[in-house]
Amino acid sequence: MAQQRDYRIDASTLQQAQQVGLASADWHACKIDRKTLKRLMKRENQAPLAHFGLWLLLLIISGSVAFLAWGTLWCIPAFTIYGMLYAASDHRAHELSHGTPFRTGWLNTALYHLTAFMTLHEANFWRWSHARHHTDTLILGSDREIAVPRPPNLAKMLLDLCYIASGWVELKRIFRHAAGHLTKEDMTFVPESERPKVIWTCRIYVTIILGTVGWCLAIGSILPALFIVLPRFYGGPLSQLFNLTQHTALAENVLDHRLNTRTVKMNPIFNFLYMNMNYHVEHHMFPMVPFYHLPRLHDHIKNQCPSPYPSLWAAYREIIPGVLRQRKDPGYFVERHLPEKAKDTPRYPNGSRSTATA
């Protein structure tokens, strides 16, 4: 087994990343007309209401069918669809954590708390965690959301198709925070003023989780848990396949999202489920652009970026060999090639290694 790279997050590792100019640094941004960018950053209510309304309606319909079909084989496809839609809360919580979808603030807040519970990411904690991820994307010693550390743990990756490994970690964190304990790592990015919110929100989560368990025990059936909490696990594979396209096997410690992030073209159904987060280079480079404007943003900057992957399968044709190679060589990464006109921009730092072509 290859030696594990150091992914610790604490005050000392953050300071080391800052000293070498990687943490809280200036990142490359593609050139775009200021007025155009301002227009793309404009929030509205109609588009996100239509999106979230359809998502919630599909959840209600599939859940109702699953409930009525309980005890028959028809409940299997119904719960499959319900679980897939439920687990897609992960992408909605992700976008809502930025506060960008709705012009009306309370809609962002209310739906963020709903979807954060559904995906088992305590809302206040993950807002600060994800802010750090955007500030220092794949920067060792600072970014705690590096999903596939090197060398990759294949068993964990397979378990996480159903959110088993990471879900267990998140449940333990929720119960630990509910007990009032934040780790030293937590305190490197959650401001002191926000910590009571983390604790009290986790206590609400724990109450709902234990209440669901008690409900199951009281009626002698797992049915309540199939609608609350468990869908995040059994419905998770497609959402995890989406998530792994974001950064897996790409370069760490670079200050250019074009080199450590993927944009993948997907079909309309996948675009809906993934909430346009397949335009991930665009999302990271300009995170204040709402999800419904990301395709237009892509059109404005695509000539300055590597070619997008034409499909989910095309992305995995690169990810799978890259992950397998990193098992033996943690220094390896897939190199993304910039367009000829963008070759004068900063690229990989000294000491990075890649023999890939992409």
Fraction of residues in helix: 40-55%
Beta content comes to under 5%
Helix/strand order, N-terminal first: HHHHHHHHHHHHHHHHHH
End-to-end C-alpha gap: 26 Å
Domain unit count: 1
* CA radius of gyration: 21 Å
For the biggest sheet, the summary is: none
Mean pLDDT: 93
**Number of separate helices:** 18
Shape: globular
Low-confidence stretches: 351-358
Structural class: mainly alpha
Layout of helices and strands:
Elements: H1 11-19, H2 34-40, H3 46-68, H4 75-87, H5 89-96, H6 105-118, H7 123-135, H8 154-159, H9 164-178, H10 195-219, H11 223-227, H12 231-234, H13 237-244, H14 257-260, H15 268-274, H16 280-285, H17 294-301, H18 312-328
Helix pairs in contact: 3-4, 5-6, 9-10
Briefly, what is this?
Residues 338-358 are annotated as: Disordered. One of its GO terms (biological process) is lipid biosynthetic process. This protein has 358 residues and is mostly helical.
